[in-house]
Amino acid sequence: SIMSYNGGVVIAMKGKGCVAIAADRRLGVRGHTVAMDFQKIFEMGPHLYVGLPGLATDTITVAQRLKFRLNMYELRENRRITPKTFASVVANLLYERRFGPYFVEPVIAGIDTKTGEPYICNTDLIGCLNEPDDFVVSGTCVEQAFGMCEALWEPDLEPLDLFETISQALVNAFDRDAMSGWGAVVHVIEKDKVTVRTVKTRMD
Amino acid sequence: MSMMFAPRLTEAAAPTTHAAPTWSPYDNNGGTCVAIAGEDYCVIAADTRMSTGFSILTRNYSKIHQITDKSVLASSGFQADIRALQKNLDARHQIYQHQHSKQMSCPAMAQLLSNTLYYKRFFPYYAFNVLGGLDSEGKGCVYTYDAVGSYERSGYSSQGTGMQLIMPVLDNQLKSASPLVLPLRQSTTPLSEVEAVDLVKDTFASAAERDIYTGDGVEIVIVNRDGIRHELMDLKRD
Predict the structure, then answer these.
(1) Is residue A151 within 8 angstroms of chain B, CB to CB?
(2) Whole-number Å distance between alpha carbons of A25 and A59
(3) How far are the Cα atoms of A16, A149, B11, B64, B223 from residue B204, in angstroms, in the given order?
(4) What's the 3-state SS for A17-42?
(5) Do B1 and A2 touch (CB under 8 A)?
(6) Best mutation site among A55, A103, A146, A170 for testing chain B: the one with the most B CBs within 10 Å?
(7) d(CA B50, CA B59)
(8) What is each CA distance from B212 to A142, B34, B181, in whole angstroms?
C-alpha cells in the first residue's frame, strides 16, 4: 500500500487556548528503517503548523508547494494567513491533483492570532476537510491513535496537560505499529509561544 | 507497488482462469473482546452487538461462554464458527470430566483450545478468542489466540474489530515490565478488581465511539475465588 510504504503518524489536539501537534520520527522503506530524524511537521506561520504523514516524497513536495503558496498569500495580502484559510489552501492544492493525488493526509494545527481561537483539522489525500472540536489523527496507525485519543482526551486541557495527553496518546499508539515510532516530536502552540519537545520512546 | 500492472496473459498461456469468488463460507459479525488478569481475579468482557456488513442483526448477543467453573471464553469473528467451537470445547470438557473426575484447569483448557483451532488449520474457525480465568493457584490468567491456535499467556488482551483501538490504551494502563528485567515480575496487573472493571468500561466506551461494529452494550464477567459474577453496561447504539 502506497500510504504505508514509508510509515508514520501525526496527531493534533485542541486544548484551552492552545493546540498541540505531534508526530513520530521514523522514515522507512517498507520494513527497513532508514532515518530516525525525518521531519513530518512543518511551520507555516508563527502559530500555524502542518503535519504531513504518508508517502515521504510527497511529504517534502507538498510542504514545499504549500510554503510557496503561503509566501505568495503573504505577499499579496500583506498579513499572516489564518488557520482556517490555510486549511482551504491545503484542500485546494490536493484537489487540483484529484486524479493523480499526492499521497499525504495532512493534519493542520494553529491558533488564529486575531481571536486566540485554537483550530485543528485534517484532510484526506484529495482535500476533503474535517474540522472536529477535539482531536485529529492521520498515518499508518490511525486505529490505535483513535483509541488512545478517545480514551485520554478531555476538553479544556491546559498546555502542560495537553502535552502529556498528546504524548501518551502518540507514543502508545505507535508502539503498536511496526511502521511508526523511533522517537516523537511534540509542538505545543499557545497564543504567545510555541514549545517544541522531543519525547524519549522505545527505539524500535 | 500497486500502481504497476502485470503483463496480460494470452488465452494460450493461461488456459485456466479463475473467476473472482462470489460466495464466501465466512462472514464477520464484528465486535470486540477484552480480558484483564489480576492477582486473584480475571475480568472478561465483550460488547453485545452482532452485525453483518453495515447492518445490525441484534443488539443483545452474548459473545462470552463459560466452559468450566474457572474458564471463560470470549470470541469475536464469525459467530456460527464460534458457536461450533464452543460446543466442541464443551463436549471435550465433558469427556475430560468423565475420565478424570475433575474439571479442566484454565491452562489445560488453553492448550485444548489451541489444539482444537489448529486441527482446522486448512479451513479455520473464523474466531478471534480470548480465554480468561483462574489458574490452579488461583491467580488470574488471560490467553490470547489467533484464528489457527497460536496462543500466549499474558496479563491482558483484546481481540476483534476494536482491538487496534483498545490495545494501546491497555498498554498505557497495564503494561508490565519486560520479562528480560530480573527478578521476574508477575504478568498480572496490580490493579484492584473494581479498578480493572472501570478500565474495561472506559475502553469499551472509547471503542464504541470510533468502531462502527462495537456498541449497544458490554457484558462483563468477573471470575474470582468466590465464583463468577456478571455485569452489564449500556453503550452507544449508533
Answers:
(1) yes
(2) 13
(3) 27, 13, 53, 15, 19
(4) CEEEEEEECCEEECCEEEECCCCCEE
(5) yes
(6) A146
(7) 6
(8) 15, 17, 39
The stretch B177-202 carries a mean pLDDT of 82
* C-alpha angle B112-B118-B121 in degrees, rounded to nearest 5: 160
CB B167 within 8 A of CB A144: yes
pLDDT tens for each residue of A144-180: 999 999 999 999 999 999 999 999 999 999 999 999 9
What is the mean predicted confidence (pLDDT) over B3-20?
A: 58
Measured in residues, chain A has a length of 204
Give me the DSSP letters along B92-109: HHHHHHHHHSSPPPHHHH
Contact flag B172-A1 (C-beta cutoff 8 Å): no
Q: Are A51 and A107 in contact (CB under 8 A)?
A: yes
Q: DSSP per residue over A30-86, as a string?
A: TTEEEES----EEEEETTEEEE--B-HHHHHHHHHHHHHHHHHHHHHHSSPPPHHHH
Q: How far apart are CA B151 and CA B121, in angstroms?
A: 14
Tell me the shortest Cα–Cα distance from A116 to chain B, in angstroms.
29
- Predicted structure pTM score: 0.87
| SS3 at position A7 | coil
CA dihedral (B9, B21, B150, A143) positive or negative: positive
**Is B2 in Cβ contact with A172 (below 8 Å)?**
no
Q: Does A146 touch chain B (CB under 8 A)?
A: yes
Give the B window 1-30 contacts with A, CB below 8 Å: 1-3
Q: Is the bond leading into B107 cis (omega within 30 degrees of zero)?
A: no
Q: Hey, of A30, A58, A99, A144, which one would you mutate to test binding to chain B, going by the most B CBs within 10 A of its CB?
A: A144
ipTM of the complex: 0.86
Q: How high is the pLDDT of residue B120?
A: 97
